[in-house]
Each structure stands twice: as structure tokens, then as C-alpha cells.
Design a protein that fits this description.
- The protein is of the alpha+beta class and 383 residues long.
- It is 68% helix and 9% strand.
- The chain has twelve helices and five strands.
- The protein has a five-stranded mixed beta sheet, with helices on one face.
- Strand 1, helix 11 and strand 2 form a beta-alpha-beta unit.
- Helix 1 packs across helix 5 and helix 8 crosses helix 12.
Length: 383
């Protein structure tokens, strides 16, 4: 019976909030009338985009309310209303999401009254449920009437607020455009980094090597000892240049990924991080491997997260979890440090997001002040 009471109370809370939102939408009719008058007379045509943005907020509140009851989020698919007045007006009118929201609001004016009428049925629902339970000898065999009514209200709202296929396609195109721009930016930044590393590192050492070999050739006949010293220095320069080149190559695609796979490479990375890192990667130890680009992205995510933890967290412990799913690879890095990670402060999180976005992946960062910091990444791929 307690479960039934809790569910009924939750349904009542849902309907109370739905009734409040319905009442607010009725008050919004005044705004709609003013906007319609202004649009017809062309005097207040500029009000139309602002009204559309307000409708989006109301519809967004209803989406969140419905999702909290059903447990299934309702996606949003809107074109951004930005730019000059003419562009904002064109976007507000042509966006498929506007039609979806207006259609829902018109229907909500009709069935929104039901939410106000449902509230007095709370005790009726309990009586009906009690009668059925008494007759059939089972507790809460049928849901209380108030719960059924909440399901109906949420079902209607979910059906009306769900974006159209056209709107979802438009949003997907927008996401891919942004992802492509991020990928191009990340690629350009990577090329500039490689060029800088080659210019400041390997190239400088190779120039010094060439000079020492030339001096050794000149001094070889007259001063063999000096020539031998110059050749020894040249050998040191050659080894340092090779080290620099290996560093650049590892930054492009770590050879350890090819040799050991993602799990082995991350374990080696954790061992050299300077932290006490526990790595769980049992799902990736055996079986098929992810594409090279996915493994490289996952590796760099772990490397960046552990570097940030070592520099900023103030903790000497971290956890890394690598898991394989039906749709790709999941990466989770957690440290128990001070938290407060800021993407705008040059912590490398922006570069991480761009690298993951280039593969159509997602990044979630949770870093409240006081910790912990958790970085979660999903990288889609086909196994």
C-alpha cells in the first residue's frame, strides 16, 4: 500500500505542476494576441521571434516535466534564433520546431483543463484501488485512477512535443556541421603543434648536428682530438633528434597502441603518470579491437585527464575505466582532487572535446568545487 501511496502522491505532484503550467499557458494567450496583432499590422513584427523563444521555454518546461514522469527524455530540435531582425524572423517562422510547439500549445489549451479537473480525483483513485484490492484480494492490482490520468496527460504531451523527422534531420545536419568545424580546427591545431615541435626540437638538433659534422671534417686532419670530440657531440645530437622525432610520432599515434592495444597502452600510461592509478579494462583485453582512430582518441582522453589530475587535482589517486558496449567504447576517468576544472582556463578539455566530437562522440565533465572530477567519454564505433 505504501508503494501505491507514493506513486499516487507522485502522480498528484505531476498533475499539480501540469495544471500550473496549463494556467500559465492560458495567461500567455495575451502575449500571443499582441504578437499576432503586431505581425498583421507590421508594427510589432519584431515581437514574433521573441514570442517564439518564449514558446520554446514553455515547451521545454513541459518536456522536462513529462520526462520526469515517464522516465524518457523528449529531445529538442530547434534552429538558433540569432542575427539581425530579418534573419531571426525567417528562422522563427521556418523552423519546424516552431510548428511543433505551436501545435502542442493549441492542443494544450484543449486538454490542459483536464489537469485541473484531475486533482479532485486523488481520493477517488484511492477508493477505486481499495475496492479492487478488496474484491480481488491483491494490493494495488490496478493502478490508482490518478496515476492512469497522469499517464494519459504525459502520453499526450510526449506525442505532441516530439520533434518531427524534418526537425531532427535539420538538427543532425547542424550538429555535423559543427562537428566538422571542430574537426578542422582540431586538425589545424594538431598540424601547428607538430610543426612547432619539429621546428623547435628535431629540426634545431639536426641543424646543430650538421654544423658539428662539418666542423669535425675541417678539424679531422689538423686536430684529430677536436674532431673526435665534435663527432661525439654530433652523435649525442643525433640521439636527441631521434628522441624528439619519437616524441612527435608518439603524439600523432602512439606505437604502443599498435603493439599492446588500448588496454595495454592505457595501463602503461597509468604506470608512468606519477599517480596511483587503478585501471579496469577487462572488456577490452580480448576479442576484436576498435578502429585505430577510436583507440587513439580514447588514449589521448585518458592521457589528458591524468595529466590534468597530476597538475591540478592535488590528489595522488585516480581511476580509469574502459568498457566496450554494443555501440562503441566508454572511457571514464575519476580523481578525488579539489575539482573546479574550467574548460576556458586552458586545461585541455576543449581540445579533448574537439577530438572526440570529430568521431561523433560525447564528453561529460563533472568537476564541482571540492571534487571529485569525473570525465566520461562515449566513442561510437562498429565492432
Amino acid at each position: 500500500m505504501r508503494a501505491t501511496l507514493r506513486q499516487t502522491a507522485r502522480a498528484t505532484a505531476h498533475l499539480v505542476l501540469a495544471a500550473a503550467l496549463a494556467f500559465g499557458s492560458y495567461l500567455f494567450i495575451t502575449v500571443l494576441l499582441i504578437t499576432a496583432t503586431g505581425a498583421v499590422t507590421m508594427v510589432g513584427i519584431w515581437l514574433l521571434p521573441e514570442t517564439v523563444l518564449l514558446i520554446r521555454r514553455i515547451a521545454g518546461a513541459k518536456r522536462r516535466l513529462t520526462a520526469s514522469w515517464t522516465g524518457r527524455p523528449i529531445p529538442e530540435a530547434y534552429a538558433p534564433v540569432t542575427g539581425p531582425v530579418r534573419e531571426r524572423l525567417r528562422t522563427a517562422v521556418r523552423d519546424p520546431g516552431t510548428l511543433t510547439d505551436v501545435r502542442w500549445m493549441a492542443a494544450y489549451y484543449a486538454y490542459g483543463w483536464l489537469t485541473l479537473l484531475m486533482l479532485p480525483l486523488w481520493p477517488v483513485g484511492l477508493v477505486v484501488d481499495g475496492v479492487w484490492s478488496g474484491l480481488l484480494g491483491r494490493e494495488a492490482l490496478v493502478l490508482p485512477l490518478i496515476v492512469r490520468l497522469a499517464d494519459v496527460e504525459a502520453g499526450w504531451s510526449a506525442a505532441l512535443l516530439r520533434p518531427s523527422p524534418k526537425a531532427l534531420l535539420a538538427r543532425r545536419v547542424e550538429q555535423l556541421t559543427a562537428t566538422r568545424a571542430d574537426a578542422v580546427a582540431a586538425h589545424g591545431a594538431e598540424l601547428r603543434r607538430i610543426e612547432r615541435d619539429l621546428h623547435d626540437g628535431a629540426q634545431a638538433r639536426l641543424v646543430a648536428l650538421s654544423m658539428r659534422i662539418g666542423l669535425a671534417q675541417r678539424a679531422y686532419g689538423a686536430d684529430p682530438d677536436t674532431a673526435r670530440k665534435l663527432l661525439a657531440d654530433a652523435q649525442d645530437q643525433a640521439e636527441e633528434a631521434l628522441t624528439e622525432l619519437r616524441h612527435v610520432v608518439r603524439a600523432i599515434h602512439p606505437p604502443i597502441l599498435t603493439d599492446r592495444g588500448l588496454a595495454g597502452a592505457v595501463r602503461a600510461l597509468a604506470a608512468s603518470s606519477g599517480l596511483r592509478v587503478s585501471v579496469q579494462a577487462d572488456d577490452l583485453e580480448d576479442g576484436a579491437r576498435a578502429p585505430a582512430a577510436v583507440e587513439a582518441a580514447a588514449y589521448f582522453v585518458v592521457a589528458e585527464a591524468l595529466t590534468n589530475a597530476a597538475k591540478y587535482s592535488g590528489s595522488d589517486r585516480a581511476e580509469v575505466l574502459l568498457a566496450r558496449s554494443r555501440t562503441g567504447v566508454s572511457v571514464r576517468v575519476r580523481d578525488e582532487g579539489c575539482g573546479g576544472a574550467d574548460e576556458s582556463a586552458g586545461s585541455g578539455l576543449l581540445g579533448m572535446r574537439r577530438r572526440v566530437a570529430a568521431l561523433d562522440g560525447t564528453v561529460r565533465v563533472s568537476s564541482p568545487v571540492g571534487g571529485p572530477t569525473v570525465v566520461e567519454v562515449e566513442l561510437p564505433c562498429v565492432w
